[in-house]
Amino acid sequence: MNLIRAEVSRLLSRRFTVIMVIGLFAVFGITAATTLANSTRPGEDTWATAERTAQERRNSLAQFKVTCQEAFVEDREAAEAAFPQGCDAAADASHIRPELYLEDAFVFAQEISGLTVFLAVYLSFFAFVIAASFIGAEMSSGGITNLLLWRPQRSSILGAKLAALTGCVVAFSLVFTVLYVGAFYLIAYTSGWTGDTGAAAFWGELLALCGRGIALSTASAACAFALATLARHTAAALGIAVGYFLIWEAGARIVFEIGGMLPYDPYFLSSYLSAFVTGDLKYWTGLDGAGDLVITRLSGGMVLAGLTAVLTVAAFANFRRRDLT
After folding, report:
1. From CA 97, how far away is CA 112, in angstroms rounded?
2. Which residue among 121, 133, 196, 201 is least enclosed by CB atoms within 10 Å?
3. Which H helix or E strand runs over 155?
């Protein structure tokens, strides 16, 4: 425990960590200030306009279903071609609420999911850079060699650093997420509209989304820690990540698209991360009767956990037998 506390102190006292935290709060402040500046409390005229728009949408959906049903009665074969997903493909009219059409008003229940996904991505980036810098600097400077002279137990030293890092990432992500969600709820409460937040299901889904975001940031930190340990340098770990996303995630997608090699989503890590955070990813619609192709949230989580485990085990195995002099 003394070793872990020492590593926590070392992590929190690093100037780079402080700069990254300040940058994170700066981005949060800009996002919150922009949202507040562009949101106004809806008045009676705004509600009336939103209600008319919602009613027009309900009428449109009702007309769609009537037209679809009449088409199936007259000519079923032609109707199946015109309405391949059936008459129930349209949204449920009961889900069309006026708050969905409020203009110039921040609606918490409608917007917070997207904002939380953005938070998960940004926290993961933050955790990756902090983690790579934390262990990479000690590897390249020889600081970890000096530490081993005091305590020549490689696995326990590296394990303490990883435990301190991931513990700080979890704690910081948890506190920052609560602050983030609370700030946007306050903005909606004072200068917008909170929306339908009374149901327990809403808060349960939001809590689960926040939890997956924290898990993603923690896994990101562990992966960065492992890469920097294997490469022995912060820049190398960052270079591997940037190279992967530029060459494979961006470049290979373009090649697959030009070559018509569809679907290609299962070949990219981002597809599994997206499925894990936001939910099942349907990347191919089987209109030919072959069925839809889906990357499930479970498979996304398994890929993330597997990648983290493989990199971490490789880092520890390499560190145990590497010459650090």
Report:
1. 17
2. 201
3. helix 154-191
Distances (CA, A) of 65 to 61, 87, 97, 125, 226: 6, 6, 19, 45, 55
* Alpha-carbon gap, residue 5 to 1, rounded angstroms: 6
Strand partners, 295: 281
- Report pLDDT digits (tens) over 32-44: 999 999 888 888 8
Query: Which tokens belong to 184?
Result: 């946007």
Whole-model pTM: value is 0.85
Q: How many CB atoms lie within 10 A of CB 274?
A: 19
For residue 311, give the amino acid letter. Answer: L
Which token pair is 210? 């926040």
Q: Is the pLDDT of residue 171 over 90?
A: yes
DSSP 8-state secondary structure symbol assigned to residue 90: S
Q: What angle do CA 214, 217, 218 make, to 5 degrees?
A: 85
Alpha-carbon distance of 224 to 132, in angstroms, equals 5
Residue 289 pLDDT: 47
Q: Which tokens is 45 given? A: 């005229």
d(CA 241, CA 223): 10
Residue 101 and residue 87: Cα distance in Å, rounded? 24
Separation between Cα atoms, residue 280 and residue 96, nearest integer Å: 23
Q: Which residue has the tokens 């698209």?
A: 257
